[in-house]
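Quick illustration, no need to memorize.
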Amino acid sequence: QVQLVEAGGGFVQAGGSLRLSCTLSRPTFSNYAIGWFRQAPGKERGFVTTISMSFGSAYYADSVKGRFTISRESAKNTVYLHMNSLKPEDTAVYYCAAGDRVKPATVTSGDAYDNWGEGTQITVPS
């Protein structure tokens, strides 16, 4: 088990940028994947991006590809989500999640992740 805490949410104008962080309670020596998901009011939680803590490989949802970048700083047990060119459609609560048995075929599914942060609100007004 690992606990996760998100930080960096807030209010940003369309076209602006924001950086989120996800700090883990301990190092991930096993093959952990850290994912970002988001949920807007009235919508189901959806996949944003994920990264392998071991290899640094990443995968992005089509809706954020080219705008969002996920990165890791293993020495700080932290994963970052750099969000650029933000749109009103990006408004949601953003969650980071960790899983130590995430398979390549299931990286986009929240069910593949065992531990979740409490979330942080991102608001992009129209």
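The first strand starts at residue 4 and ends at 7.
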